[in-house]
């Protein structure tokens, strides 16, 4: 075990300075605890530089143009291609040109010490940080170490893959050129968002999906409507196929499929899942399996530990930045309460130290054209959980506000009603602009608002939110 006699001591040591780690440190400092944070790359993490921010910066011009083309008197003003250079420059601004000065300044402003380098556990409450020049720092935590290391792209074990230098989500969001032909392997959120962005920027995109359709974790109609739109935009979507081998020769990628066919492209993006970044953080020094997801209790404390927390993606509860930040607020409050000797934490369902929303009302928006947004359970998930439910569907073209938003509006809404309690277990919207509806659904699901009360939450006319009234009318019959 590492000698920690000269270690610097803090109340809390956080490994990973993405949005989740930043929020844990912030909540600790707000409670009067000292905190250090360790980061091997850029402060701000995956979300700021290779995920949420750059992907949405790429997609915003795409969606804005698509919306404008559906508005009379405006559509002819936005004909022609996007200004690729301007779109990429806009993306670069939102990533701060992959520099973290601003976020480092924010950490300094709240009094959190930053250690740059690779952080590893070195036994209970102990962390070593190895900088790129070999310099080593030893840190000790009085109360808690929080693992906030996130995830990395999971690549399949395919012959020749390493030599091909495939795109992952990082390369797809940070690319400085538009490939003429792009193969996208996968059918989840990263796959459909990047297919949407690069198709609109000029790539010929082919999406290869092993399963039967896109967005398999949402209601089936979400993937169907997104696939329909991608196809209309010029992309090709092939379902029920797998890539068995890849090679690159003279700059061209060839992907061999399990049906014996082969496709060629300039780049290939593998959007085939995520893996925890816990393989080299010293878990073995505290009796845990390297490379594993870390199961936690409702206060985000690792099962069986009194001091180790896993917050955000590393615990596999909900791989979403906003849910990770929510967990960070819960974990920070719980760490502070335990440090201050609070005898009974608020760990009941709605207590300040309990992350209940990760089970009940996780919201998500897929920024495709059309957008897909959901909160809570799908019909299949609710039925699998044993609830007695009814799915209530509504064609969103029948909403006056939707018709004003876009000519020929196409979309669909569904709410999942718990018939025993007369509350909502889940809501899904698909259509232009629905991302801004989802917080209302999140409030309804998380708050377990009775339908008899929701009936009195009157939506403003004429907005797309009127879909709530139409869903409730459909349910009442």
UniProtKB/TrEMBL annotation:
Domain Pyridine nucleotide-disulphide oxidoreductase dimerisation: 362-468
Cofactor(s) named in the record: FAD
Keyword check for NAD: yes
Swiss-Prot/TrEMBL keywords: FAD, Flavoprotein, NAD, Oxidoreductase
Keyword Oxidoreductase: yes
Pfam family, one: Pyr_redox_2
GO molecular function, one term: oxidoreductase activity
UniProt-listed Gene3D superfamilies: 3.30.390.30, FAD/NAD(P)-binding domain
FAD/NAD(P)-binding domain segment(s): 10-323
Enzyme Commission (EC) number: 1.-.-.-
Family named by the database record: Belongs to the class-I pyridine nucleotide-disulfide oxidoreductase family.
PANTHER family documented for this protein: DIHYDROLIPOYL DEHYDROGENASE, MITOCHONDRIAL (PTHR22912:SF151), DISULFIDE OXIDOREDUCTASE (PTHR22912)
Name of the protein in question: NAD(P)/FAD-dependent oxidoreductase
Native source species: Streptomyces huasconensis
């Amino acid at each position: 075990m590492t000698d920690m006699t000269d270690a610097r001591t803090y109340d809390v040591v956080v490994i990973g300075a993405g949005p989740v780690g930043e929020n844990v440190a912030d909540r600790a400092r707000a409670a009067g605890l000292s905190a250090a944070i360790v980061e091997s790359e850029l402060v701000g993490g995956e979300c700021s530089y290779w995920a949420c921010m750059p992907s949405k910066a790429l997609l915003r011009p795409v969606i804005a143009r698509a919306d404008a083309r559906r508005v009379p008197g405006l559509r002819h003003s936005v004909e022609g291609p996007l200004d690729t250079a301007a779109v990429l420059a806009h993306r670069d601004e939102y990533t701060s040109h992959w520099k973290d000065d601003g976020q480092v300044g924010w950490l300094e402003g709240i009094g959190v010490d930053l250690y740059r380098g690779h952080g590893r556990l070195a036994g209970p409450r102990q962390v070593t940080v190895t900088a790129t020049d070999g310099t080593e720092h030893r840190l000790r935590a009085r109360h808690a170490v929080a693992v906030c290391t996130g995830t990395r792209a999971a690549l399949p074990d395919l012959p020749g893959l390493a030599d091909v230098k495939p795109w992952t989500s990082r390369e797809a969001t940070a690319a400085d050129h538009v490939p003429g032909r792009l193969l996208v392997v996968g059918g989840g959120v990263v796959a459909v968002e990047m297919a949407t962005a690069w198709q609109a920027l000029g790539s010929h995109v082919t999406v290869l999906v092993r399963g039967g359709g896109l967005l398999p974790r949402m209601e089936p109609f979400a993937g169907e409507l997104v696939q329909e739109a991608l196809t209309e935009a010029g992309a090709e979507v092939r379902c029920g196929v797998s890539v068995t081998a890849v090679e690159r020769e003279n700059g061209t990628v060839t992907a061999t499929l399990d049906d014996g066919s082969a496709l060629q492209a300039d780049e290939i993006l593998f959007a085939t899942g995520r893996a925890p970044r816990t393989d080299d953080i010293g878990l073995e020094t505290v009796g845990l399996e390297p490379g594993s997801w870390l199961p936690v209790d409702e206060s985000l404390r690792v099962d069986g530990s009194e001091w180790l927390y896993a917050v955000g993606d590393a615990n596999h509860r909900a791989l979403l930045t906003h849910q990770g930040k929510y967990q960070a607020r819960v974990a920070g409050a719980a760490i502070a309460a335990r440090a201050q000797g609070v005898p009974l934490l608020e760990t009941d369902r709605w207590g300040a130290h309990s992350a209940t929303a990760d089970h009940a009302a996780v919201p998500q928006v897929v920024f495709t054209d059309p957008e897909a947004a959901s909160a809570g359970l799908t019909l299949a998930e609710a039925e699998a959980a044993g609830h007695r439910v009814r799915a209530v569907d509504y064609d969103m073209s029948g909403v006056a506000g939707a018709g004003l938003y876009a000519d020929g509006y196409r979309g669909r809404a569904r709410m999942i009603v718990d018939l025993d309690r007369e509350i909502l277990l889940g809501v899904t919207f698909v259509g232009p602009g629905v991302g801004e509806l989802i917080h209302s659904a999140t409030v309804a699901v998380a708050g377990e608002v009775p339908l008899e009360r929701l009936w009195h939450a009157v939506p403003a006319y004429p907005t797309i939110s009127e879909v709530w009234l139409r869903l409730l009318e459909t349910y009442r019959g």
